[in-house]
Amino acid sequence: MASTPLVEATDLGKTFAGPVPVEALRDATLTIEGGEQVAIVGPSGSGKSTLLNLLGLLTDSSAGSYRLDGLDTTGLSERQRASLRAERIGFVFQEFHLMGPRSSLENTELGLLYRRFPKRERRRRAEEALVAVGLEDRIGTKVDRLSGGERQRVAIARAIVGKPRLLLADEPTGNLDEANSMAVLDLFAALREENTAQVIVTHDPLVADHCDRRITLRYGRIESGGPR
Ligand SMILES: Nc1ncnc2c1ncn2[C@@H]1O[C@H](COP(=O)(O)OP(=O)(O)O)[C@@H](O)[C@H]1O
Ligand SMILES: [Mg+2]
To answer: For the residues 102-117, what does the mean pLDDT come to?
Structure first.
């Protein structure tokens, strides 16, 4: 018997309202299994970030349906979406979105902000995540003092500290050199062992080649690679 895919999107669409409405994504049908590593590629403006934000429940869809872990997300309240997001999804962005004057540890703990763990447990898990990304000797260091590669590893620690089922990354290596990009990919690869699926938006052929699968977007449509 086939198991339920982690991500099941059917004819998903997003139109941004405005004087001239923009149909950023349409008819996106795709499935992703637990632990799969999927690259999303396509020219600028093709809908990559829109798709990622829909999968991350950061944006409301305008059409179609999206099941996450077998759960239909259509019609959920903002609060229910936020709780689903906090429990099952981690995000990594190109610009890291970290608090510079705060330590690696404090930034990583933010990934558990909406979970009901006691302070001590949050700290323990954050330390564990920082060790997992190889920053055990930077735990108390302010993010301002870290290199670009180290900052991205803090951002990854923050994204994985809650042990998400789905990790979403928008150009996670966009600001990194090749050596640091490869280090990030190695970290992502290790997440497969935890059955964490990963969707990685990237311009970098090195990153895309490294993934199990590639979904190509063009003009807001999936050109190839959607359903398996
Ligand atoms: N918040 C928004 N409001 C209006 N239009 C948007 C918004 N976000 C994205 N778009 C438009 O949707 C299309 C797809 O954007 P995006 O998903 O960011 O593409 P990509 O990430 O592939 O560069 C573009 O035409 C973009 O201008
Ligand atoms: Mg984008």
So the answer is: 93
